[in-house]
Each structure stands twice: as C-alpha cells, then as structure tokens.
Amino acid sequence: MSAITLTNHALIGNELALSWGDGQENFISLKKLREHCPCAVCQGEPDALGRVVKPTVHHTERSFKLIRLQQVGGYALQLFWADGHNSGIYTFDLLRQM
C-alpha cells in the first residue's frame, strides 16, 4: 500500500479543500476540523492507568477561523486558528477519514 500524498490544499469559504495523489478530493468544514482537533488539549491524554478524560473545550467565533496552515513533514498539516490555538497535528490519514 502506498503512502497518502497531499498534492494541493486551499481555503474555500468555510471549508478546507484537499487534493490527494490518487485523485481524490475532500472538502472539510472548518467547524468540523476544529471540533475534531486531535491535540491533547482538545481530546485529552491518557493518565498512568491509560484512562482518558476528555476535557471540556469552549469555542468562540474566532475558534473556527483558520488563519494559516503548514505541512508537517510528508504526513500531516498543522492548523493555526484565529483564537491562538495551533497544537493540533492533523495526519493525512485523519483528514482522509474526515
């Protein structure tokens, strides 16, 4: 199985458009991206016993405004939101599933 490659991305209105090396395209709403941020602040992280308690995350209007993004190696995108949040690393696998 070959690795997923991102060939292009663009912000179109309130969606992130992604083009993949296999010809598939995805359009993901910014609201969905932010609500599914994979970072530990948003999703929680396991304690010493492996239990994960998901934190309560409060969003504002600025939470859903994407100000920039950058590719992380050949496997992910890091999104930078207008409210200052930027710790989520969205793997290409995760983005394809969304």
Describe the structure.
It contains 3 helices and 6 strands, in the order βββααβββα. It has 98 residues and is an alpha+beta fold. The strands form 2 sheets. The protein has a 3-stranded antiparallel β-sheet with strand order 1-2-3. It has a 3-stranded antiparallel β-sheet with strand order 4-5-6. A hairpin with a 2-residue loop joins strand 1 and strand 2.
Q: What is the fold named in CATH at topology level?
A: NE0471 N-terminal domain-like
Class by SSE composition:
alpha+beta
How many separate domains?
A: 1
Q: What's the overall geometry?
A: globular
Q: Class, according to the CATH hierarchy?
A: Alpha Beta
> Total number of β-strand segments?
6
Q: Rg, please?
A: 14 Å
The largest beta-sheet arranges its strands as: 1-2-3
In the CATH hierarchy, the architecture is: 2-Layer Sandwich
Q: Level of helix content?
A: 10-25%
In percent, how much strand structure appears in the residues? 25-35%
Overall mean confidence score, pLDDT: 93
Largest sheet: 3 strands, antiparallel
Distance between the termini: 20 Å
| Count of runs of 4 or more consecutive helical residues | 3
**Weakly predicted, low-confidence segments:** none
Output the helix-strand order: EEEHHEEEH
Domain Gamma-butyrobetaine hydroxylase-like N-terminal: 14-96
Protein name: DUF971 domain-containing protein
Keywords: Iron, Metal-binding
Pfam family, one: GBBH-like_N
